[in-house]
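your task:
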Amino acid sequence: MKYTISGAYTFEEKIKKSTFIGNLHYAESFEQARDFIQQINKLHPQANHNCYAYIIGKNGEIPFNSDAGEPPGTAGKPILNAILKYDLSNVCLTVTRYFGGVKLGVRGLIDAYGYIAEKTIEQTKKIPIIDFYNYNCIMAYDFYNVFLHKIQTLDLTITDTEFTDLVSIKLKVSEFANDEFKEYISDLQNAGKISLN
């Protein structure tokens, strides 16, 4: 299973006089990742490098990384490897470097970018990436409490309830509860207790 994050996270540390700043942000599309990278470039226009990696998709289908002027394989790939290590997807992670006058060498760069990426990720709270299914269940008032009691045991969220001549409940059901919920709903439909809209 892949995980994602909510919010944005920053980590900063000096390594051999160079200042490294990690920024991790939620991004569920290439466009969102690109926009975040552009924000970082505007935030740090004087930086020597704004390197990055992102992974998009429920199962991490779209990975990408850039060394942004650092020697090939020394920045983008360690950042990407950190994202992979923590099973994250739908995230974009940038590592900004302000050169401090001491060259780190290839191994030193790989270690520094990987370290900052991991430290940035370690601050986050991981959230499982799961699918949700939406339902609109319509029923008579006398069945409403029975229905509410049953669905409390399932992994779902009531997103809206309308009371007219009938009760209409909109639900968001997680992929883990969907099969059980569909079976329950099907039985109720067959019994004429509920209808779906």
